[in-house]
Amino acid sequence: MKKYTYTEKQDTRSGFGAGLAELGKTNDKVVALCADLTPSLKMADFIEANPERFFQTGIAEANMMGMAAGLTIGGYIPYTGTFANFSTGRVYDQIRQSIAYSGKNVKICASHAGLTLGEDGATHQILEDIGLMKMLPGMTVINPCDYNQTKAATIAIAEHEGPVYLRFGRPKVPIFTPADQKFEIGKAIMLNEGTDVTIIATGHLVWEAIKAGEALEEKGISAEIINIHTIKPLDEEAIIKSVKKTGCVVSAEEHNFLGGLGESVSRTLAEHFPAPQEFVATKDTFGESGTPEQLMEKYGLNAEAIVAASEKVIKRK
Amino acid sequence: MANIEELKSFATQVRRDIVRQVHKVSSGHPGGSLGCTEFFVALYQEIMDHDPSFNMDGVNEDLFFLSNGHISPVFYSVLARSGYFPVEELGTFRMIDSRLQGHPTTHEGLPGIRIASGSLGQGMSVALGAAQAKKLNKDSKLVYTLHGDGELQEGQNWEAIMYAGAKGVDNIISTVDVNGQQIDGSTDTVLNMGDLKAKFEAFGWDVLEIAEGNDIEKVIEGLNEAKEHTGKGKPVCVLMTTVMGNGVDFMMHTHEWHGKAPNDEQLESALAQNPETLGDY
């Protein structure tokens, strides 16, 4: 089993900021918009270097989404920045009509997704955004796992023609993916091969899945661990191939089990290779205030929860 | 300038197209379409510098965004008769497999449409983005929009109106179709919006008025004046008073024909009031 280590922790939103700053230098069609959250989205470097390509909309997300759609008319590639809650639920109809149905090349970049936003509480902790966005025809949905992968994804989506939802977060998490790893939209990354259970994780839960794999190995259980950074389009082939080998699956995500990655995995398996599945996800509930660690433990979104789910699902084979 | 009589005759044909489209499928929105006929004819036949061969980016062209997408019959008729697509296609309005969806969309690739609209209140934001793209592209052409007066009850408009004023987006001309009607009655009784001129001015806009929005000469005069007001640091608003259902006597001055199709007899009467000029599709 491959061992993953890290020397530094960083927030994925900083990976977005770094990626955006690099795009500012390399792609003169990239423009950015923000609804009064530039420090939270780490957009300062882009703005400082490209003030003419930045649009501050004020606290007016609906207008921001519409403007982003309009900026594509004339050839620009707009990146919108605000919290995940205000990037999706608050502006769902604007995204649906002006961006998705209109087929506009807008990159909706959403920070502070999920419970790990922490102390601000449930008003800001959206756990439904993956579901909302994956239901929109033509929308690509990406949830990278660490700083490097978020930076790479931010850069990669500029080359993809069509609307993209890029989801990232606030807490500092281990950087373990290689800085030079190419980001391929829709391509799963095999982190560890195994034979007893497939663990499919996205976002912050990928590192937890790696830790769970180590704990399972100590118990004599061989876990195959897959990083699904792209929830839509889903790498169905990788999932089916793995589950055909292991016979069962655990999905892990910082999201409601209704509408999330787990359900996409279930649908894929139901169509092609039905298998027992356990869901490490929030279970149809809102979040609450607390530290990220406390919340992830209380809502069962950590390595321990993945280990328990793996042991349970193996028994169901 | 085009001959006014020719434009009037163009408008008469558009009114025929509107009622015929709506009648055929027994659905659609004739009232607002008829009220804005002169505006569309003026815009596409006289005011805008545009290319019917259609390119989505529209660089170095004037652009138009229809925010109140339900008045698609007038939009489709004027686009077709301005050369964007064959006029025969008007016969497919709202039918299965048509590019002429109930509300305008880019999704089926209909030339002339740059954004989907229908869910109200979104058009101005999109137009502002397109206007900012023009500035980035050093493109001196203008962006035009049309909004219903009732549509201004949607809050997103005021986000956009605030942005445009605050940021001095001065390459946009937003026209409001002031017909005073909406589905549940008059705009004053449903939700009175007060003094729209004062509201736009308070948000930093330069506001002009066209008192007779169904007089094509007055519409052209008003829009030409609006053009003169662009490029001076402020967005330009045109409050254009129209009569809903204009040109078909039984549809005028009422909200009843907002989203209702005429029956056979009513169609006959509407067509008799608007004799064929350019040839029916």
TrEMBL record, chain A:
Q: Which residues form the Transketolase-like pyrimidine-binding domain?
A: 10-175
The record ties this protein, via CDD domains, to: TPP_PYR_DXS_TK_like
Give the matching InterPro entries.
PDH/Transketolase, THDP-binding, Transketo_C/PFOR_II, Transketolase-like_Pyr-bd, Transketolase_C
Asked whether the keyword Membrane is assigned, the reply is: no
Q: Please identify the protein, giving its name as recorded.
A: Transketolase
> Which Gene3D superfamilies would you find in this protein's record?
3.40.50.920, 3.40.50.970
At the top level of its lineage, which domain of life is listed? Bacteria
Q: Coiled coil located at which positions? A: none
Instruction: Give yes or no: UniProt keyword Nucleotide-binding.
Output: no
Output the SMART domains linked to this UniProt entry: Transket_pyr
The signal sequence is none
Keywords, in A-Z order: Thiamine pyrophosphate
Automatic annotation (TrEMBL), chain B:
Q: Which protein, by its recorded name, is this?
A: Transketolase
Q: Which InterPro entries match?
A: THDP-binding, Transketolase_N
Q: What species does this protein belong to?
A: Zunongwangia atlantica 22II14-10F7
Record's family? Belongs to the transketolase family.
> Has the keyword Nucleotide-binding been applied to this entry?
no
Show where the Transketolase N-terminal domain sits: 11-268
Name its co-factor(s). thiamine diphosphate
Superkingdom in the source lineage: Bacteria
* Entries under PANTHER family matching the protein: TRANSKETOLASE N-TERMINAL SECTION-RELATED (PTHR47514)
